[in-house]
Batch of 4 targets.
Target 1
Amino acid sequence: MFLETERLYLRQIVADDLEAVFALDRDPEVMRYIKPPFTEKSQAREYIQQVREYNEKHPGLGRWAMLERATNAFVGVFLLKDLEGTEEIEVGYRMHRRFWGRGYATEMTKAVLQYGFGQLGLRRIVAIAQPANRASTHVMEKCGLRFEKKAYHYQTDVVLYAIEKTLVGKIEVRPGSIGDILAVYPDIPELQRPPGADEYRKRLFGAPKHLLLVAYAGSEPVGFKAGYEREPDGSFYSWMGGVAHPHRRRGIAYQLARAMETWAMAQGYRALRCKTRNAHKPMLLFALSNGFDIVGVEPRDSVGAHRITLEKKL
């Protein structure tokens, strides 16, 4: 038993759950707002294997079987895991229809939020749903999550709700220095041959306007985002950014992005632009989920090296 409430408990999903998982995920009403229903039992078998592999690689996170304490009946699947293309952790569930309307989703969601904030030390947890899925957004609201934005995840438009835990050492985003940015470099493994201080001075201080944001945990710099006016067309260019690996899954990238967006709008810019390599899928997914559109592709010798230009209207 992994986690329990008054009426329910969670445990690992095992091979013997094959029939229950297949019955759950083949039901078109259950899967209406999630994904196409399963049509073959082999899909459920593959799903169970994927779940077990993910749970082993991500201790404390994962997908679990949810059961009734009184009957040991398989109620559904509950999850607390990475939200694709982001640093966020999402909570979610799906249940057999015969268990709908009993308050089970709210009961377990509250317990999982307490687990995430308490035992895992998470600072922020999100949940997503298709806009038409009012039953799910109602559960989110009852559990204290609040609407934050419209987004795009799992190949569909969604609404994103979030809840945060106020902790000592809360992240603060504010204008910072080039020195603080360079101090974060060693903890950002994705940065290969990053620009030095002279390149920052050349690009930022030589532009009509620039912005240098740093995220601080106390006095420690743990993330950054830098940009400047690159073209005289009403756009602001988000040039460089990153979050120190030990401080990921705290919503820092999102805080930095929102801070730059707010500043750019206040300065009268009409759009944000950024550029990344096609191989940098997390960056692409993060941008697309935050309202950016792909507006250009610059071919290179390999597909992964193609430069992708993205833009968000403000």
Note: The helical segments are 18-25, 41-57, 104-118, 134-142, 178-184, 197-205, 252-266, 281-289.
Target 2
Amino acid sequence: MPRTYTISNKNIEAVIAPDNGGMLVSLKVNGVETLRMNAGELRLHPMLAGGVPLMFPYPSATKGDCYVVDGKEYGMPMHGLCKNAAFGIKDMGEDYITLFMTNNEAWMSTQYPYPFRLEVTYKLTENGIKLLANVTNTGVKPLPHAIGWHPFFKATDKKAVKLNHSFTVNYDYLNDTDSGEAAQNMNLADVWDHVFHTPKTTFFTVENPVDGFAVRCDYDECFNVLVVCTTVEGATCVEPWCDLPNAANLHRFTQWVNPGESRDYNVTLTLQKLG
């Protein structure tokens, strides 16, 4: 059976699944669940199950599922590599857990030719949770990558869910080009699968009175992209990314870590129970 670990304090309870991409599979505020999760899909299709999957080394699709490094073609699947990987446990306590993984020979030869160590810490706050990713370059060349998080916020009635964000540019990911202004005042009962970039602030909010919670997501300035997807039943996905789709080829906002160095990426979800 896949491992799960629960961390909690007086207001927040979180469940993490190291064997399923190290993802957050449940997040409750004062007993109210904020995430959509289909446990039956978790083992076979973690990205479809829900929760908050981590996407690395690139968060989205790569044109033709391939890119070229030093004249050699590599494959990069949708949402990256670690989504189905098992993580080890570095450390844990009552209100935190730190997971880790490294590149492997198969990935190095066919998908991502950069040695790395990825650590992910889930740390509870009084009213939420910090999602902390640390990328260490253990190789000899600069390491390109883009962290992304994929929250499946529970949404029983999508028309009642309110999203507020400050992203300014709409991105046409089918044609790899900017395409007008980012949508505001979105009716989330409509079908959305949109990519926005260039925010004015470093947070967004989601209010869901029907399911009884509100979320504020604060993120580092390197999270230049927001994806809004409403195609999943029972969920509204609002996803902070560090780069655009096809990042392995375009490198518009790609992050780089020099050999022997590390970089941290911080996202904080602050939760409120409504009603």
Note: The CA atoms of residues 5 and 64 lie 37 Å apart.
Target 3
Amino acid sequence: MLARMGEQLPLPLTTPLAGQPEPNVEPVAGARSRRRWLQDKLAELCGEPVSVVVNDNRSNLLSAQRRGGTLAFRLHHMFLDADERVLRAAARFANRPDRSSRTLVDQFIERHGHLITRPPRPASARPARGRNHDLQAVFDELNRDYFAGRIDAEIVFGEAGRPQRRRRRRRSIKLGSYDDTARRIVIHPALDQPQVPRSFVAYIVFHEMLHQLYRPQRAGVALRFHGRDFKKAERAFAGRREAQRWFSRNLDLLLSYREPEVMAGDRPRRAP
């Protein structure tokens, strides 16, 4: 869950890894020469200069943007194995997208969906029990009251990250994320402040728990993580409106959070 300055609701519009640079990858032998062939082929099909960046982005698999006199493609590495028919559709998608080109690209992505992977999460998580909130207790109550015990996931506090050296104020904060591969919910430690009510922590945890039941939906070449069914289910949370009001009044508190220094012997204990 990503919160930004100026937002009224803490509803994320990005993936769990939003804000991270897209990793350029060379997933198969000969990928560099294949990328050059792909760039030349797209330039031929588009009839103009083309640049190609191959990445492992799992939410936006195909995009194109004109930069100066060049049409810049960003493509998931699955397109390294695309045939000319698919590349023609990709070229049309970049210039004048039509239903047939979108359908052909969508079908190609569906056939190669197994290549969409999530990068491994660094092993930097903390226990579920913080100084002020016990995430495991919150998770257990929500799982009992809303999910009939169906959610099977680990929940932990994450890390705030390194302090920014620049003086420009932070404008966004990722309050929570769900890793489907690891079945792990990670909550930002800014929510472990004494000023943050337990009901707001529960709202964020509830949101992340829903991700185990409502998987991303494809919208063209992008993945929609919060579809209609997800949003409908989220409205079932009893304290939703109160949590949203608290968020709109206290976003500054969350954005200004800085990791406190932890003295030896003062680390949070694991929940029994």
Note: The CA atoms of residues 143 and 151 lie 6 Å apart.
Target 4
Amino acid sequence: MHRAAPWALVAALLVLSTIASIWWGRATQAGTPVVVFDLSQTSLPAFFACMDGRSLLIAAHRGGPIGARPENGLSTLSATLHAVPALLEIDISKTSDDVLILFHDEQLERTTNGTGPVYRPWRELRDLQLRGLNRQFTADHIPLLSEVLAWAHGRAILQLDRRGEAHWSDIAAAVQDAGMAPHVIAIAYSIEEAATIHSLLPNTMISVPINSYSDLTSLRRASIPLNQVLAWTGTSEIDERLNASLDGAGVPVIHGVFERQSDPWDLPLAVDRVARAGHDRGIDILSVNQPAGVWALLDSLDPAATSTDLYQSCLNGAP
């Protein structure tokens, strides 16, 4: 792991001291989100093209759980959006009676008051309580994908990560039924999987792992429009030359800064990576466990890049 410079460690401590007030001050307020991601005046590819080079976007890993907020909880998604103009990554699993739900693990113990496998009838899951990141039980229950899609329509951009027994054919049907195909990002783990997703959801953006020039060549051959692709470049060191090639191809780059979901406050790493990403390292979207803290850091580095007016202008269809 890259070791953060001393200035970065100091900055991390300063950010830590402000996170609670930023998060709870915004996330618990009634009203509208920081940015309402209403794509009625533009398209998702056009929005990313408009933001290119003007702001580093944030993606909230597993919805951005913090403190008493559970991962993949609907209240967490709402709280994140009220605190940070973030893309919301969610995990989609399937029950034994074919109900699509938001859930990451194959077992229930870590994030609920249940035990055993999640692959069981929905009636056995619907009343379980979700645990917050602080391990305390909450009033949240496991959300249905259908209710989250309905909640997000005209409000949020979701990244869909397939887990467990869920199949893209089922997820695609749910997304189409909700009218959300142009407003979500599907996460693929290979170019072959991306091609399958594109055949089911031809108007949906897809996050595809691109770790080399050969991957980029294979992507070009996959018959997926490049303006519908996000390049996932992992969580290790930043490859500036590859990122430059992706930028030249019109493909936004998404990079991860998370080591352990159980320890989301790895801010020295985030400070170091964000600061470097913000200096022409070719990253367009940063996927993080701590969206509020990273957003505060971005705001301190370049307030103009975190202006909600910029987001709104791009959502309104500005070039």
Note: The chain is about 35% helix and 15% strand.
